[in-house]
Amino acid sequence: MELLRVENLCKHYGGRETGTDALKGVSFTVEKGEFVAIVGPSGSGKSTLLHILGGVDRPTSGRVLVDGADVYQMDENALAIFRRRQIGLIYQFYNLIPVLNVEENITLPLLLDGRKVDPFRLQNLVEKLGLGERLGHLPSQLSGGQQQRVSIGRALIASPALVLADEPTGNLDSKNSGEIIGLLRDFHRTLDQTLLIITHDERIALQADRIIAIEDGQIAQDEVIRR
Ligand code: ADP
Ligand code: ADP
Question: Has the keyword Transport been applied to this entry (predicted)?
């Protein structure tokens, strides 16, 4: 089943005559449950693409359909609901809220959506993340690897259709990187999640089902490496 459809996406930053064409007509589809690595040189448009897929940055033209819904045809309110329910975003620098503790950071997307926290399911999630003993800690009291685990929890708690990660291991040493990717893969398998990861790390890319290479705002290569 197709979960994501991207049609002729273009993104121009800046003025009409000047500025940058960050995406120059990108099209692809992703099946539900696929794990896709997005690779390519710095400045090639990967983050721009991911942000547009996540509903946080509007394209200049083109369409994004998630589970059949045309994301940029939605009004602001529907788009906000779409982001909360359908998208889990994971960033290189975690983007946790510094004044909220681990539990509060993880459960925030549910609460913002007016949903209740189920303590047993929360416990199950934090144990899988290895954060069972840390629920009351602030982000500043955690290591980078632990902070990234919190951000994975926050990305997953609302059971989004699509999980998007922008260099999730870019700030971590190789041991922590391996653990974070292991966690993302485990969740991807057990929850049948659709996962797109931007990475510079070839070892991570080779764990995906498929690698899409972006160069200069276009797809340079799109290769299925396992089914
Ligand atoms: P990547 O993630 O592959 O490094 P980006 O999507 O961040 O690439 O950037 C693609 C191009 O768009 C680059 O030339 C970058 O400088 C430009 N760009 C990205 N974000 C902005 C922005 N907010 N304003 C202007 N130019 C931007
Ligand atoms: P599952 O159905 O297997 O619990 P989901 O995709 O629904 O998986 O949820 C992802 C993670 O978020 C799971 O680990 C789940 O325990 C947790 N979770 C989902 N909904 C809630 C909730 N209402 N309260 C607390 N945790 C939740």
Answer: yes
Q: How many domains does the chain have?
A: 1
- pLDDT by residue (tens digit) across 167-210? 999 999 999 999 999 999 999 999 889 999 999 888 899 999 99
pLDDT digits (tens, 9 = 90+) for 2-18: 999 999 999 999 988 88
For residues 69 and 87, the answer to whether their CB atoms sit within 8 Å is no
Instruction: Determine which residue's CA is closest to atom 9 belonging to ligand 2.
Output: 159
Determine if ligand 2 sits within 6 Å of the CB of residue 157: yes
Global ipTM:
0.92
**Residue 123 CA to ligand 2 centre (angstroms):** 10
Structural domain containing residue 167: 2-224
* Ordered strands of the 87-90 beta sheet: 87-90, 162-166, 194-198, 35-39, 210-215, 218-224
Q: What is the CATH number of the domain that holds 173?
A: 3.40.50.300
